[in-house]
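Weekly structure sync, notes
Attendees: PL (lead), two postdocs, one rotation student
Agenda item 3: pending single-chain targets
PL asked that the sequence for the first pending target be pasted directly into the notes so everyone works from the same version. It is reproduced below exactly as submitted, 199 residues in total.
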Amino acid sequence: MIGNILTSPALYEFSKTAQAQVGVATGLKAIGRPGFIILDNKIDPQTKKYSAMKEFLYQATCLAMALFVVANFKKHSISIGKHIFKNEQVFKAFKNYGDFANYIKLSDTEKAEKLAQINKTAKAAAEKAGKIHEEFKIENINEDLAKGMKEVSSIAGSMLGLSIAAPLISRPFIRPVLKALGINNEKPQNKEEKLDVKA
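Predicted structure, written out during the meeting:
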């Protein structure tokens, strides 16, 4: 069973995506970094608990933000490509990456039928707007360019999610959560310290 999973083409394709790589790397950090803090016997228990939970919450925020931003950049990669490659039919024919992803799963015959439907709708919209429709053809649909645009958009999304969105959200978010959980970094005072404070 494990062998079937490891040799699965779907797993192989998924592992190549930026979304998968960012998700796995950040997920491992969310487990590994707090784990190493907990295993460090040189840190006092209170600081250890506080630091481990703070690191976990930060990495979890990074993971959530990266995946959210990556998913949106991936979804809109066709629209992004449309602004960069204005003459490429692949970016004109499809509304979003989901539509394109469904298209590339089809056989050549099914692709031709799908493009015929898209052409019909696009032609009607163009005529209504008083424009001329450029017919979409299989040989002019650059699938590799659209796939590459999706990956570049995903990488850009992960960078924005990890370097900008996550820090901005985690700063005001983590401390209140730690406080609500009753976790702080204040070391308990011993009796001598308490006497000194009173004096």
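Discussion points:
- The two ends are 70 Å apart (CA to CA).
- Residues 191-199 have pLDDT under 50 and may be disordered.
Action: rotation student to compare against the earlier draft before next sync.
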